[in-house]
Amino acid sequence: DCGLSSRLGEVMVYNALMALTRWDKAGFKIPTVAVNFSKSELRSPGLASKLKWELDRFDLPPERLTVEILETVVADGDNDVVVANIAAISQMGCGVDLDDFGTGHASITSIRRFAVRRIKIDRSFVTRVDEDREQQKVVSAILSMAEQLGMQTIAEGVETPEEHAILAQLGCRHVQGFSIARPMPVDETMDWISRQLARKAGTPRISKRAK
After folding, report:
1. Which has the closest alpha carbon to 127: 53, 80, 70, 178?
2. Per-residue confidence at 35, pLDDT binned at 50, 70, 90?
């Protein structure tokens, strides 16, 4: 099972970097791609070296790969191999995202220890956030903490335009979920990105009023 998990991780990294290369060739400016790693994969010795090899294989700098780790992994950060791997990945230049934030009881000390760059707010705090004032308070608190620590944020599981709108009002600049797009094969992303860019280009800009 551990070997299968490791092989699955290798395939995911390969496909993610392949997609990034295809987007580059198509002229799309997609800055980074993110890959989830389980705790068992993070226990693999030499993980950072393997990632570096894959990045070199595609002639991509480490800054364009982000590794997502569950908050529970950070909260239980007593495994020296896991700590060393994440530190090496961060020092190499890859981003480190803390996934499902708010569910694993990670301390601020642990978050800083793992050099987390971005917090992914768990969907349990996002669902119906447009209707629940308490949810809004929690999200605001998370956003404020992240800002104080110099971390970026992204809200997970955003499924409606209303949720998206209130999150933007609260100051969450990045979201992911069905309100943006559903999972799709990489071939379909080419047309989807093209449509998004065309729609963005067609959006009228509000100019400043002349004095």
Report:
1. 178
2. very high
**134 is annotated as an active-site residue:** no
Q: Is residue 151 part of a domain?
A: yes
User: Where in the sequence is the domain holding 57, given as residue range(s)?
Assistant: 2-186
Does residue 201 form part of some domain?
no
Asked whether the CA dihedral 85, 86, 92, 95 is positive or negative, the reply is positive
pTM (two decimals):
0.86
How, if at all, do strands 152-155 and 118-121 pair?
A: parallel
Asked if the structure places residue 195 within a domain, the reply is no
Q: Would the CA dihedral through 11, 20, 153, 197 be positive or negative?
A: negative
| CA proximity to 98, closest of 121, 79, 128 | 121
The CATH number that applies at residue 32 is: 3.20.20.450
Q: Within 10 A of 101 (CB to CB), how many other CB atoms are there?
A: 27
Counted domains in the chain: 1
Q: Which of 10, 54, 68, 156 is catalytic?
A: 156
Q: Is the pLDDT of residue 210 over 50?
A: no
